[in-house]
Design goal:
4 helices; globular; mainly alpha
Protein backbone atom coordinates (compact mmCIF):
# COMPACT_ATOMS: atom_id res chain seq x y z
CA UNK A 1 0.00 0.00 0.00
CA UNK A 2 1.19 3.50 -0.78
CA UNK A 3 1.22 5.30 2.56
CA UNK A 4 1.65 8.70 0.94
CA UNK A 5 -1.60 8.18 -0.96
CA UNK A 6 -3.24 6.94 2.23
CA UNK A 7 -2.06 10.11 3.97
CA UNK A 8 -3.63 12.21 1.22
CA UNK A 9 -6.95 10.39 1.58
CA UNK A 10 -6.87 10.70 5.36
CA UNK A 11 -5.92 14.35 4.98
CA UNK A 12 -9.10 14.96 2.99
CA UNK A 13 -11.02 13.21 5.78
CA UNK A 14 -9.67 15.83 8.22
CA UNK A 15 -10.69 18.86 6.15
CA UNK A 16 -13.02 21.41 7.76
CA UNK A 17 -12.53 20.01 11.25
CA UNK A 18 -13.78 16.51 10.44
CA UNK A 19 -12.16 13.32 11.65
CA UNK A 20 -10.38 12.82 14.94
CA UNK A 21 -9.31 15.75 17.10
CA UNK A 22 -5.66 16.74 17.50
CA UNK A 23 -5.66 14.90 20.84
CA UNK A 24 -7.02 11.74 19.22
CA UNK A 25 -4.46 12.09 16.44
CA UNK A 26 -1.71 12.41 19.09
CA UNK A 27 -2.91 9.16 20.67
CA UNK A 28 -3.08 7.34 17.33
CA UNK A 29 0.41 8.50 16.32
CA UNK A 30 1.76 7.33 19.70
CA UNK A 31 0.01 3.93 19.45
CA UNK A 32 1.49 3.46 15.98
CA UNK A 33 4.97 4.35 17.26
CA UNK A 34 5.39 7.30 14.91
CA UNK A 35 5.81 10.18 17.38
CA UNK A 36 9.24 11.00 15.91
CA UNK A 37 7.56 11.76 12.57
CA UNK A 38 4.87 14.07 13.93
CA UNK A 39 5.75 17.68 13.06
CA UNK A 40 3.18 19.19 15.42
CA UNK A 41 2.04 17.22 18.46
CA UNK A 42 -1.13 18.78 19.80
CA UNK A 43 -1.48 20.73 16.56
CA UNK A 44 1.46 23.05 17.33
CA UNK A 45 4.82 23.10 15.57
CA UNK A 46 8.18 23.50 17.26
CA UNK A 47 7.78 27.29 17.45
CA UNK A 48 4.20 27.08 18.72
CA UNK A 49 2.66 27.81 15.33
CA UNK A 50 -0.59 25.97 14.52
CA UNK A 51 -0.40 23.14 12.03
CA UNK A 52 -3.52 21.46 10.72
CA UNK A 53 -4.37 17.79 11.00
CA UNK A 54 -4.18 17.38 7.23
CA UNK A 55 -0.53 18.43 7.06
CA UNK A 56 0.26 16.45 10.19
CA UNK A 57 -1.13 13.17 8.87
CA UNK A 58 0.50 13.62 5.48
CA UNK A 59 3.88 14.31 7.07
CA UNK A 60 3.61 11.37 9.45
CA UNK A 61 2.70 9.05 6.55
CA UNK A 62 5.75 10.18 4.59
CA UNK A 63 7.84 9.50 7.69
CA UNK A 64 6.24 6.05 8.04
CA UNK A 65 7.00 5.30 4.38
CA UNK A 66 10.67 5.98 5.04
CA UNK A 67 10.95 4.37 8.49
CA UNK A 68 8.19 1.86 9.32
CA UNK A 69 5.49 1.06 6.78
CA UNK A 70 3.62 -1.30 9.09
CA UNK A 71 3.30 1.48 11.66
CA UNK A 72 1.83 3.71 8.95
CA UNK A 73 -0.82 1.10 8.22
CA UNK A 74 -1.56 0.85 11.94
CA UNK A 75 -1.97 4.62 12.09
CA UNK A 76 -4.37 4.52 9.15
CA UNK A 77 -6.52 1.97 10.94
CA UNK A 78 -6.47 3.99 14.17
CA UNK A 79 -7.56 7.14 12.34
CA UNK A 80 -10.52 5.48 10.69
CA UNK A 81 -11.79 3.77 13.84
CA UNK A 82 -13.38 6.94 15.22
Amino acid sequence: MDLIELGAVLGAFFEDGAGPSHDQLDQAVARAGLVAGDPAPGGRGTRGEPLGKTKRIRTVMVYATDHDASAGLKLGVCCTDW
